């Protein structure tokens, strides 16, 4: 395993203990990564239990194939968790989603996710499918770039940065992460203390290129259908857009059907489909000190009812 493949799984024990409620159940790790969660899930299962892993990244799939050879209870599917229904099929006792980009992806300059190390401006979780960040930035309108930076990156200076990107590409192709980071930093008039000025722009472009929020929305709906009554949905988010979506999804299905006030409807007729399990969980001080990337992690757990 190279240093680019090393990954410390965030909220490892908290997530798995919330997910696995029966050792003979069938579970899904919708974001296999380098298999930290999957290995611990398998250790909690008996011979009748099983686990399906899903990942877009070919390097994650290579790691997962090795695990599948070692443990017959595990199988891996390459694709987006937005395809969870067709990739998994049949009901399951739990679904785990560990969202965002993994440490091996961030730490390898060749993947193009990081503004700290120069590399090709790619950002695709599956480099064999879809459009790279460089290809998109070469053709996108200034308005579209600004929308992505503002909507997905929550960048206050989205218009100004988008204008700078369009001006820069007129002089030369933007195909390196260092190029883009420099353009963004120079166009950003007010740097946030303790945060690289390119952080929000890179986040926004990455989320757009990989359809992360759209895929999450689709996945949550499908996961709810896959879960058996009593099955658990466990989601770890790393920024506010993801967490907000998960929180609203859980709240919607805990509350049930929204009906006009005053209708003579009993509580049990509201089609409530989930119950929230505990409060949102964050990484402990010890974990944050050991792994600074865990500081923004938020885990939410819900259980299917009915």
Quick recap of the structure?
The chain is an alpha/beta fold and 306 residues long. Helices cover 42% and strands 15% of the residues.
How does the SSE layout of this entry go?
Elements lengths: L11 H8 L6 E4 L6 H9 L5 E6 L2 H13 L3 E5 L5 H5 L3 E7 L4 H5 L25 H7 L2 H10 L6 H14 L5 H11 L11 H11 L2 H15 E11 L2 H16 L18 E3 L4 E2 L2 H6 L7 E7 L2
Parallel strand pairs: 1-2, 1-4, 2-3, 4-5
Antiparallel strand pairs: 5-8, 6-8, 7-8
The whole-angstrom Rg is 21 Å
The best one-word shape is globular
CATH class descriptor of the largest domain: Alpha Beta
Which residues form runs of ≥5 with pLDDT under 50?
Answer: 1-6
CATH superfamily caption of the largest domain: Vaccinia Virus protein VP39
What's the story with the biggest beta sheet? 8 strands, mixed
Number of helices: 13
The number of strands is 8
Q: Please state the structural category.
A: alpha/beta
Strand content: 5-15%
Distance between the termini: 44 Å
The figure for the number of domains is: 2
Overall mean confidence score, pLDDT: 91
Which fold does the CATH topology of the largest domain refer to? Rossmann fold
Model description:
The protein is an alpha/beta fold. The protein has 2 domains: 3-103 and 212-304, Rossmann fold (3-Layer(aba) Sandwich); 126-209, Putative methyltransferase TM0872, insert domain (DNA polymerase, domain 1). It contains 13 helices and 8 strands. It has helices at 12-19, 36-44, 58-70, 84-88, 103-107, 133-139, 142-151, 158-171, 177-187, 199-209, 212-226, 240-255, 285-290, and strands at residues 26-29, 50-55, 74-78, 92-98, 227-237, 274-276, 281-282, 298-304. Strands 1, 2, 3, 4, 5, 6, 7 and 8 form an 8-stranded mixed β-sheet that branches. Strand 1 (26-29), helix 2 (36-44) and strand 2 form a beta-alpha-beta unit. Helix 7 (142-151) packs across helix 8 (158-171) and helix 11 (212-226) runs parallel beside helix 12 (240-255). The relative contact order is 0.14. Residues 1-6 have low confidence and may be disordered.
